[in-house]
Design brief:
This protein is mainly alpha-helical. Helix content is 46%, strand content 0%. The protein is built from 3 helices and no strands. It has helices at residues 4-11, 33-47, 64-76. The radius of gyration is 11 Å and the shape is globular.
């Protein structure tokens, strides 16, 4: 289950932060490649993880649910 902390972090990088639908593409909410870099750093700090290179792709950052599922997978494999 996505946490309030997760939504708080990603909302900082979205233009339409108050309207986050877990299935909506993050690009349509304002996420771009430059914002992804800082988002990754913030998520790594907040959740005590490190994104392996294999997860640094368009599919991971497509929707908030795909991003959350990636974070969960990384945490489960630590």
């Amino acid at each position: 289950m996505m946490t309030p902390q997760f939504f708080e972090i990603i909302s900082q990088y979205l233009e339409k932060a108050d309207e986050i639908d877990p299935e909506e593409e993050l690009v349509s909410l304002g996420l771009d490649s430059l914002k992804v870099i800082n988002l990754v750093l913030d998520l790594e700090d907040a959740f005590g993880i490190e994104f392996p290179d294999r997860y640094l792709n368009e599919e991971t950052f497509r929707t908030s649910i795909s991003l959350w599922n990636t974070i969960t997978a990384i945490k489960d494999n630590q």
